Amino acid sequence: MSHQITPFEEIRRTSPAGNEFWSSRDFARVLGYVNYRHFQAVIEKAKTACINSGQQVEDHFVGADQMIEIGKGGQRAVKTVMMSRYACYLVIQNADPAKEIVAQGQTYFAIQTRRQELSDEEVEKRRRLSIRSELRQHNTQLADAAKDAGAIEPRDYAIFQNHGYMGLYNGLGAKDIHARKGLKKNEQILDHMGSTELAANLFRATQAEDKLRREKITGKAKANQAHREVGAKVRQTIKELGGTMPEELPATESIKKLESKAKKALKKPKQ
After folding, report:
1. What is the pLDDT confidence band of residue 202, given thresholds at 50, 70 and 90?
2. Buried b (16+ CB within 10 A) or exposed e, 198-233
3. Where are the domains of the chain?
4. How far is Cα 88 from Cα 83, in angstroms, rounded to an integer?
5. I need a labelling partner for 141 at 20 to 30 A (CA). Which of 20, 95, 110, 241 fits?
6. Separation of alpha carbons 258 and 183, rounded Å
7. Cβ atoms of residues 88 and 47 within 8 Å
């Protein structure tokens, strides 16, 4: 299909920060709503759909003033709604289907939204691969720091690691997290974390290692306590920022599959 500028692309705007948005006034005009009040009812339905999809309305629908021409070169401010691409997708799904332009818009925003989803998925995969690799490296360094503190035997280190998890996951140890995420016996919890959860654990690992070395902590019990305290601090930070608690985040596709695909892509000869 050859690309042509659609009416929806023509009215697309970009904020100073580089984010794209559409004005509801422009949108109503393109869709042929002569009376803007009728279009406002469509926006309200779209907002309800937004809530039902688990999204924050204020992330996608933002009230603002827009200057419009009123004849003889004059202008006046009118209320409008700045809408994200996803908001436009919801609006177009709730607009009058008898309008030909609405059917065109439904196709356009469905395709564009899916493209964005695919793009976001690719970004998330790259983040997971990067953070998981970094976490492996820091876990090795953390193990060395724990060994210096007295956690010498494999069982000692397993207990030490568990204390870090318990601090970060509100008392849940590795086995508890494994069960909560619904993972199989041979699946590792770190391999099924999304980038956000991996980043929280990376922060826990780096800060725990730093604390052990900086404070020259010795003794298994003190090392375990320090790791748990660091985990709890990371959890507190997530809470203060309004983030989702790590135990509430869903398990994701095994990162081993992503790593395998990445290796195959590197080996694949260039055309």
Report:
1. very high
2. bbbbbbbbbbbbebbeeeebeebeebbebbbbbbbb
3. 7-96, 118-257
4. 6
5. 241
6. 17
7. no
Helices 220-240 and 195-214 sit at what angle, rounded to 10 degrees? 140
Q: What is the largest CA-CA distance in the chain?
A: 85
CB 108 within 8 A of CB 100: no
Q: What are phi and psi of 210, to 5 degrees?
A: -60, -40
- Tens digits of residue pLDDT in 207-266: 999 999 999 999 999 999 999 999 999 999 999 988 899 999 999 989 988 888 777 766
pTM: 0.60
- 19-74 pLDDT, tens digit each: 889 999 999 999 999 899 999 999 999 999 999 988 899 999 999 887 777 777 77
Residues in the chain: 271
Residue 68: in which H helix or E strand, if any?
strand 61-69
pLDDT per residue as tens digits for the range 123-139: 888 889 999 999 999 99
Please count the CA atoms within 13 angstroms of the CA of 231 that sit on its side-chain side.
25
Tokens encoding 262:
């990445």
Which among 107, 102, 104 has a CA at the least distance from the CA of 92?
102
Predicted confidence (pLDDT) at residue 201 exceeds the cutoff of 90: yes
pLDDT for the residue numbered 267: 66
Sole residue written with tokens 């659609």: 6
Distance between start and end Cα atoms, the chain: 25
Measured at the CA of 3, the angle between CA 17 and CA 26, to 5 degrees, comes to: 50
